[in-house]
Amino acid sequence: MSARSPEDIQRWLVERVAGFLELTPADIDVRAPFQHYGLDSMEQLRVIGELETWLQRELDETLLRQYPTIESVAAFLAKAA
Asked: Rounded to an integer, what distance in angstroms lies between the CA atom of residue 78 and that of residue 73?
């Protein structure tokens, strides 16, 4: 498992969130709270599950509530690697 940079994680999250919401990545603001985009709890769990697979590590299911923006999730995960 190789460490991912905050930029790599942000890019991945932007693509996934945009895909879930049928938006373009350019429509996603990494500083906007996930709630701004209306991601429900099931979608958040799906994002976390896919992120676990991509990062090859277990993540807390409350990750997106503890770190409510793409920017904060990416910074935390890159630091915690």
From this structure: 8
